[in-house]
Amino acid sequence: MNILIVNGASDIYGASRICFQTAHKLKKNGHQVQVLLSEEGPLVQALNNVGIPSSIVRLGVLRKKYFSVLGLVNRIRVLITAFFIIKKICKEQKINLIYTNAIPVVIGGIASKLLGIKNVWHLHEILPENGFQHRFFGWLINRCSSKVIAVSKAVYDNWSSKISVDKLVLVYNGIDFPNLSNQATELGASLGLPSQKILVGMIGRVNLYKGQEYFLEIVAEINKHPHNCHFVMVGDAYKGYEYLYDELSAQKKRLGIEAVVTDLGYRTDIASIMNALDIFVLPSIKPDPFPTVILEAMAAQKPVVATQQGGACESVVHGLTGYLVPLQDPATVAAHILALAQNESLRNEMGLAGYQRFQNLYSFENFETNIAAAFESIAV
C-alpha cells in the first residue's frame, strides 16, 4: 500500500513516538510510507534516519485553545489549505490509505472521506463522555474511518458509545527501550548529589493534565518528613503554554521545596534519565489514556507510582509493580513514595515485576505484530 501518515506534532513524546514506530513497521513490511507533520522537530530527523520522507504542512490541528469563534475560523482556513495539499499528494503518490495519528489531527479523516480513501485513525485520548468534543469527534471519526485503533481499554471504552465497535480495535502501545540496567549513570553526580540519594522523578509534557503541580504538592508533603530523596522533573510545554513553567517555579518557591527539586526541562536522553531514577511517578490529574512513559519505567525496572485512572490502571498492578494512588491526596502518595525510598529490596522486587509484565504485554515485538495486523486487515 501507499500510505500517507498525518501527525500533528514533531516531538518524541508518547503519540509521536508511536507514530514513528508505526511508520517504521509499515515500511519494513513493504509499504510505501510518507509522513506529514505540522512543524519541525526531532521526529523529522528520526524519520530521515530510517529512510521515511516527511514534509511540514500546517495541518489545522484542533487543540483546545482554538475552541472559540476566532480560533475555529482560523482552523477552517488552515484546514482548507491543508486539504488541497493532501489532495495533490494523494493524486501524485497514488495514496490508497491515510493513517491519522491522534484525534485533533482531523484533516486526515476529512481528506480521506472527501477523496474516497480509506483511513485508519489512532486514538490516544480520553475525553469527558457526552460532552461537545466527545460527541463531535466521535461522530467525525466514526464517519471518516475504516479502522479505529485504541491504545488502551480505557480509550476503547471511552469511545465505544460513539464509534462502531466493528471498527474499533485495541492495540496496546509497545516500546523499543534500550536496556541500560548494567550501565552506570551520572545524573546524580551531574546534579551535585551524593551517591546515596534516592532519585524520584516524573517525565512528561508540561500541560494542564499531566500533574506537575500535583507532583510538587506531593514533594512538599514528603519534605515534611525525614527523607533522603531528590526530585527530578523532565519535559517541556507545547508552544503557547510556556507560562506553565513560571507557574511551576512560583509554586516551588511558595512551597519551599526549591532545594530538593531539579527541573531538567526538555531532554532527549530519556532512557539514561529513567535508568538513573529509583522511583518513577506519574501523578496525572485527568485520565491519561495509556502513558508510554510508564512502559519506559517498567522496561527500566523502576517501581511506578501513578494516579488511579485511565491507562495506568491497565499497566500498573497495585502492590506488585508499584502503586495506584488517589487524586488530591498528596499525603497518601507521599507515604507510598517514602515506603519505597526506605526499602531498596521492595524497589527492586517491584521493578523486576514491572519489567516482566512489560515483556509479556507491552514489548516492542507485541506492538509491531498487533499494529501490522490492524493495517493488514484493511482491504484497499
Question: Can you put this structure into words, describing what you see?
Answer:
The protein is α/β, with parallel strands linked by helices. The chain has 2 domains: 187 residues, Rossmann fold (3-Layer(aba) Sandwich); 175 residues, Rossmann fold (3-Layer(aba) Sandwich). It is 44% helix and 16% strand. The protein is built from 15 helices and 13 strands. The strands form 2 sheets. Strands 3-2-1-4-5-6-7 form a 7-stranded parallel beta sheet, with helices on both faces. Strand 11, helix 11 and strand 12 form a beta-alpha-beta unit. The longest helix is centred in the first third of the chain and has 25 residues. The chain is globular, with a radius of gyration of 21 Å. The termini are close together. The model has no long low-confidence stretch (mean pLDDT 93).
